[in-house]
Write a structure and sequence with these properties.
Elements: H1 8-22, H2 39-45, E1 57-68, E2 72-78, E3 83-89, H3 90-93, H4 100-107, E4 115-124, E5 130-141, E6 151-152, E7 158-159, H5 165-170, H6 172-178, H7 181-202, E8 206-207, E9 213-214, E10 226-229, E11 234-238, H8 243-251, E12 256-264, E13 276-285, H9 289-308, E14 312-315, E15 318-321, E16 327-330, H10 331-339, H11 348-357, H12 368-379, E17 388-394, E18 410-418, E19 421-428, H13 433-448, H14 459-467, E20 472-478, H15 479-487
Parallel strand pairs: 3-5, 8-12, 16-17
Antiparallel strand pairs: 1-2, 1-4, 2-3, 4-5, 6-7, 9-11, 10-11, 12-13, 13-20, 14-15, 17-18, 18-19, 19-20
Length: 508
């Protein structure tokens, strides 16, 4: 096995490891380490009056600084909750005449990044810092690769923070260590998802799992990742959406189902797009898109309150209020509001003329629905900062949506726009199998024209609809974009623990 190129520091650390192993010190012990307390709990809870509660503590964490005072070391370690100082005195660690452990491990073996455990008691130093007086120290893991140096003052303020996205996204494990605020983003992401679960479960919704590998990539207009199942000798696709499977469950008799779906789309990457992403979809029988708008408002209000204690959330230089109710406007009126042009009665040729007039370049192989989508995206989408439901889309844009009950040529659909981006997409679901077949056939015509995002005909789904699906409302919510907003992060990569990146040189 070839050795990677080692820096001077990496060579020195390996030499220290070898020296400790030669002295009989296990730098990677297997035994359980009985942690009893965390840094923040000690720092927040310790007082002289409560000293007895912290007379015997056991903590573990990663060394972030070492101050060598000869026979005394001041070491700061970082655990999962924060940073705390250790007071490590030779005569306490090695109470007899044998100082070999002190010399081999503490004095000459420890480095920044090593993981250690100590037992002892909490106290307050002469400088007023809550610390742990160490009675024993155990090396739990030797760090062989130095972390980037991040300077902190006595108050914990960070200087020379590591901000390089290439490093942070590729080596998220290191990013989490040296930029502990990053961890808070992902704690909030989990809290957000748990809040949604609590909201849906309380109303009787059932969480389900549906296939990630699909014979037909359905439920959305997107370019799929293709693969091959060797045993079945059949092409398969990573799912672009889970919609059609969840609707099959509504046919089967479930009234309300939901899934946090990991989806995959073989498309571009940018600040708001990652090829692998998370969507919440739910479907509820006997409801419509008006009910769905009201329920969505309630959910978003609840999320904001759970994460921030208020419905008002700061996103970049914007202040967004998630207090219900949200504004509602049709997609045609939205375009008209921003361009002065009424596109509601235009055919494909007329829409292409408007795009040309507004200097919007559009592909030649897309139809009426995609043209309206392009017009909205170029002229209007970015203008909706406060939560707004864009409603009543043209039928050509929505092959899985029920036709509008009172407006010919439109469907009962909404998209929720926040901060100029789509966060949710919802319908009164199409449950007429004959109409659905015709919509699929129109999609196939677009595919033949070269639209690689057009939908396949899913014959099994049509068969399910023929058994009868009750009137149903459904929604998809982009969890990653929602997390971006609720944690005030500028890029989708900042809310994904391990975003996709181009493979690096294996020698690095």
């Amino acid at each position: 096995m070839s050795q990677p190129h080692l820096s001077e520091q990496e060579i020195i650390r390996r030499e220290k490891l070898q020296a400790m192993q030669s002295a009989g010190v296990d730098a990677f012990p297997a035994a359980l380490y009985p942690v009893t307390h965390y840094s923040v709990d000690i720092k927040d809870g310790f007082t002289e009056e409560k000293a007895a509660n912290f007379a015997a503590v056991c903590v573990a964490g990663r060394i972030m600084s070492i101050n060598d005072k000869g026979k005394v070391f001041f070491i700061k370690i970082q655990d999962t909750k924060g940073i705390i100082q250790l007071y490590v005195k030779r005569d306490n660690i090695c109470p007899g005449e044998d100082f070999s452990f002190w010399d081999n491990v503490v004095k000459h073996g420890l480095d920044l990044g090593d993981i250690i455990g100590v037992t002892g008691y909490a106290f307050i130093t002469k400088t007023g810092e809550t610390s742990i007086h160490a009675d024993s120290l155990t090396l739990l893991t030797k760090s062989l690769k130095p972390l980037p140096v991040v300077k902190r003052d006595d108050e914990g303020n960070v200087f020379d923070a590591v901000t390089d996205p290439e490093f942070r996204y590729r080596q998220r494990y290191a990013d989490l260590i040296i930029n502990p605020d990053v961890k808070d983003t992902f704690v909030k992401r989990t809290k957000l998802i748990n809040t949604i679960r609590e909201f849906l479960n309380a109303q009787g919704a059932l969480e389900v799992d549906t296939p990630v590998l699909q014979a037909l990539p359905g439920g959305a207009a997107a370019r799929p990742f293709a693969t091959h199942h060797n045993a079945l000798d059949t092409p398969f696709y990573l799912r672009i959406a889970n919609e059609l499977y969840l609707k099959r469950l509504i046919v089967g008799g479930f009234d309300w189902v939901y899934e946090f779906s990991r989806n995959f789309r073989n498309e571009g990457m940018d600040r708001t797009h990652n090829p692998e992403f998370t969507v919440l979809e739910w479907y509820t029988a006997y409801k419509d898109y008006f009910w769905m708008m009201e329920t969505t408002e309630q959910l978003f209000e609840k999320i904001a309150l759970a994460l921030h204690g208020t419905t008002v959330v700061t996103v970049g230089d914007k202040t967004i209020d998630f207090k219900a109710p949200f504004k509602r406007i049709s997609i045609h009126d939205a375009i008209k509001e921003n361009t002065g042009i009424d596109v509601s009665g235009l055919d494909e040729e007329g829409l292409r003329a408007v795009c040309k007039q507004l200097h919007i370049d559009v592909p030649t192989n897309i139809g009426k629905g995609k043209l309206i989508d392009e017009l909205f995206g170029a002229t209007s989408e970015h203008t909706f900062i406060q939560p707004t439901f864009i409603i009543d889309y043209p039928v050509e844009m929505s092959p899985l949506t029920k036709k509008h009950r009172s407006k010919p040529g439109l469907v009962e659909r909404f998209e929720l726009m926040v901060n100029g981006k789509e966060i949710a997409n919802a319908y009164s679901e199409l449950n007429d199998p004959i109409d659905q077949r015709e919509r699929f056939e129109e999609q196939m015509k677009l595919m033949e024209r070269g639209d690689d995002e057009a939908m396949f005909i899913d014959h099994d789904f049509l068969r399910a609809l023929e058994y009868g699906m009750p009137p149903t409302a459904g929604i998809g919510i982009g969890i990653d974009r929602l997390c971006m907003m609720m944690t005030n992060q500028p890029s989708i990569q900042d809310v994904l623990l391990f975003p996709q990146m181009r493979p690096e040189n294996p020698a690095n």
